[in-house]
Amino acid sequence: MIVANPTSPAPEANMSGEKYRIGVVGLGVMGRGIAQLFATTGHTVTMYDSAPGGARGPRDQIAAILDQLAGKGRISADVAREARGRLLPVERLDGLAECDVVIEAIVEDLNAKVSLVSALEVILGEEAMIASNTSSLLISQIASGARRPERIAGLHFFNPVPLMKVVEVIAGARTSSDVAAALKTMIEATGHRAVSAQDQPGFLVNHAGRGLYTEGLALLEDGIASHADIDQVLKDAAGFRMGPFELFDLTGIDVSGRVLQGIFEQFQFEPRFRPSSLVPPRIAAGLFGRKTGQGWYDYREGTPSAQRDPSSTIGEGGRVWIAPDCEQFEGLAAAVMERNGVIAPYAEDPDVLILIQPWGREASAVCAEQGLDPNRTIAVDPLPGLSRRRTLMATPATTAQARAKAMDLLGGGETPATMIADSPGFITQRVLATIINIACQIAQRGIATVADIDDAVRLGLGYPTGPLAWGDHIGARPGCGDSRRHSRYHR
């Protein structure tokens, strides 16, 4: 670490387990959640907000939440009572003078945060630490005008703070390693997982989470599937809690669109982070998502519900040839026969449906290489297996009759199927390859450790597993990662 003034001692880490006097500035949703977390884990929390009415209203809101939790048996009545007693609202900023740590959770504006840091340095003792809950601004920028930048770091919490069990600890270019260590210890004492990240655009979680958005948008741009089908496949087949377009609508397309553009520019126009031209028109039209009633989905008559594909009881059957190199040959054969299908020994007969299972390849490319008839060929994604939603991929020449037969044989029973257009890597392969590649880049650049990357993504983004563990599980596959997005940029 580069220390601003090597002769000036950095604040000492409180490694003894003693409780801190914590200040929280800015008492919106995030600030109140931060205050609640520390008050319930034994710290005294001094609360300040510049809004009319100051900190008393937010203090009462937190107290009401604590009472509700006690009433539901989530915490004991004693814990609730003691935590309420540790919440200390103050009318003036200088009421934070005795704090060991001050966490700011004010508006996401660089000038406002720099001004607050300057004001806090006048008030606080020399050993006090200052942490920013910024999600997008560099800590080094926030500390740029500080007298003692070595005591300033980032603590990026996630909403709702008490329930989201991960916090990013970000050291700026001049942050003391003792300060970063002290803040990490403080966070871990609350029961949350503290992950360390370099002061880079998006830090760790927002950086690692770009792939779901960017590749989801790329699939839509390429006309591979509708936004609803992309979301459904990623939820059912890959295990994501939400697809990229549902997530866009939840966070706000206006907000996420700015983040996408900002990270693209801050990473020197890295192709993996290229924003989509599909987003600006929606922002211009005011279609921001749930908060405006319309985004990628229409919420004006309630939240859209997932559509379950209709199941029929009796399949129409048909003859099917399954490529011998299919990973799930036996499973495909069993699925076909359950729907009255017959496994054909040869692919040449004109009435036979052809099934293949490529990794990272277009179905049409496989047909050209292996001499298969593209009019009768359907590719089945091998990545998620056959027990969940099946993704079927047609070539540009696949006939309507062949598509219908494939949907009946592989999506007409208990397990639903989604038909998509020809693409290298289906939906899940493309999205997971992008997510895993970004995570590999984060590890390779030393922005975070492998363990911190995987834990941060699982806990902060709710992915079913960490991206690097996911990559290890999938392993190296021929053709994987050769999506149009990568070949477009010669990557």
Describe this structure in words.
The chain is α/β, with parallel strands linked by helices and 491 residues long. It contains 19 helices and 14 strands. The protein has an eight-stranded mixed beta sheet with strand order 3-2-1-4-5-6-7-8, sandwiched between helices. A six-stranded mixed beta sheet has the order 10-9-11-12-13-14, sandwiched between helices. Helix 8 runs antiparallel to helix 16 and helix 16 packs across helix 18.
Q: Main traits of this protein?
A:
491 residues, 19 helices, alpha/beta, single chain
Secondary structure: number of strands: 14
Q: Work out the radius of gyration.
A: 27 Å
Shape: elongated
Tell me the helix content.
25-40%
> How far do the termini sit from each other?
33 Å
How would you characterize the largest beta sheet? 8 strands, mixed
Q: Mean pLDDT across all residues, rounded?
A: 91
Q: Any low-confidence stretches, pLDDT <50, length ≥5?
A: 1-16, 481-491
By secondary-structure content and strand pairing, the structural class works out as alpha/beta
Sheet with the most strands: spatial strand order: 3-2-1-4-5-6-7-8
Number of helices: 19
Strand content: 5-15%
